[in-house]
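call fold(seq) -> tokens
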Amino acid sequence: MDATRWIRAAHAGAVVVLTTLVLTHWLDVAWPRFVLAFVAIDVVGYVPGILAFRRARGGPIAPIYYHLYNVTHSYLVAVAVVGLWAFARGGFEWAMLAVPIHLSGDRGILGNVFKSPAAPFVSRA
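ret:
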């Protein structure tokens, strides 16, 4: 198995484990916050880029869209945001597992990685 498949398998495994944790604690999950945390990553980091890409008809778009995607899809940023959320709330919240589920789902299930302005925002592969 090549490295890409190992990476995808590891992330897919993380999705399974984290989703199992969330479902195990179904009654303790603040579902509106789970959905908000899950969706916010793409609302901020993906949707603006895909809209710009479509407006450009597949042509080049401003680098800011790539940076927005990469920042919002970074585990370092995710740890900081979830950590700040836990600090503000006075502790861990099961709903915040939406963040690593989203990031690992993108990598493990969809095969998405950071985006380079040298490549189209959406790959045709």
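The radius of gyration is 16 Å.
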